[in-house]
Amino acid sequence: MPKCDICGKGSIRGFQYSHSNRRTIRRWKPNIRKVRAIVDGTHVTLNVCAKCLKAGKVQRAL
Fold first, then answer.
1. Which UniProt key words apply to this protein?
2. Over the chain, what HEC string results?
3. What is the distance between the alpha carbons of residues 41 and 3, in angstroms, rounded to a whole number?
4. What is the Cα gyration radius of the chain?
5. Which of 16, 21, 52, 56 has a beta carbon 3.0–4.6 Å from 26's, enabling a disulfide?
């Protein structure tokens, strides 16, 4: 699974409980986007989560 290149956020695992309290393992995935960004004056493709995009931690390349 991809991780955010800015904050390092990745998927986490936990249990999904049914009505009878049976447990099955499930996974929560972050909202990861591939973004062309400017890093040190060059265009680079990064995996960035939506929270970092909204916060403006990445300068997007147009």
1. Ribonucleoprotein, Ribosomal protein
2. CCCCCCCCCCCEEEEEECCCCCEEEEEECCCEEEEEEEECCEEEEEEEEHHHHHHCCCCECC
3. 23
4. 16
5. 16
Q: Which residues of 7-36 are buried (b: 16+ CB within 10 A; e: fewer)?
A: eebeeeeeeeeeeeeeeeeeeeebebeebe
Q: What are residue 31's phi and psi, to 5 degrees?
A: -85, 90
What is the token pair recorded at 15?
A: 């249990």
Position 62 scores a pLDDT of 81
So what's the pLDDT on residue 49?
Answer: 97
Question: Residue 42: beta bridge partners?
Answer: 39
